[in-house]
Amino acid sequence: MHPEFDLSPAADAMADIVAAIDDTQLDAPTPARIPVRALLDHVSGLAEAFRAAAGKESLGATAAPEFGSGATLDSEWRVTVPARLRALSRAWREPEAWTGDTEAGGVAMPAGVTARVALDELVIHAWDLARATGQELKVNDSDLAVLLDFLKDTPPEGTPGLFGPSVPMGPAAPALHRVLGFTGRDPFWIPSAR
């Protein structure tokens, strides 16, 4: 089986956002309702979890992610987080990554679904970090199409532990705004508004 899509553009975009974060922004609020440092810590963990999922290394051995304070964030996060993101995208280039079932965050799923969850995590949290730190995020149209198809059946009340209640977006809204809305994000969120 060939990879259904390439996680590299989303992983690279996230790595660029991470590399541009200033130390003075680590305590800034994010749309994820946690500070930047805590979200960076989460991104570091999810990058490793989805890399391991591609190699089927984690079957039966994962747990649901916890959002901490970010106190355990690696002091070399500007190097380690982008490196983990690149390792994640490399792992999903292997055809075997897309076969059978795998596991991440305590949930076993078909590999293709797991890859879509990884793409969602990359795009949404890159947007969270970009909004929190005054950066612009560019997302490939093909990635947005994958996510819109993946998220289209998200219940309006959200998915406990994954997404908050949907933020309604009309069909004419930009694709990124519709993706964000499905995941409970307000596309117009700004730090001063919270």
Fold and architecture overview:
- The protein has one domain (8-193): Four Helix Bundle (Hemerythrin (Met), subunit A), CATH 1.20.120.
- Strands 1-2 form a two-stranded antiparallel sheet.
- 45% of the residues lie in helices and 4% in strands.
- Strand 1 (101-104) and strand 2 (107-110) form a beta hairpin.
- The chain contains six helices and two strands, in the order αααββααα.
- The longest helix is centred in the middle third of the chain and has 22 residues, at 111-132.
- The chain has 194 residues and is mostly helical.
- The model has no long low-confidence stretch (mean pLDDT 91).
Shape: globular
Percentage of β-strand residues = under 5%
- Helix and strand sequence: HHHEEHHH
What's the CATH architecture name?
Up-down Bundle
Low-confidence stretches: none
Total count of strands: 2
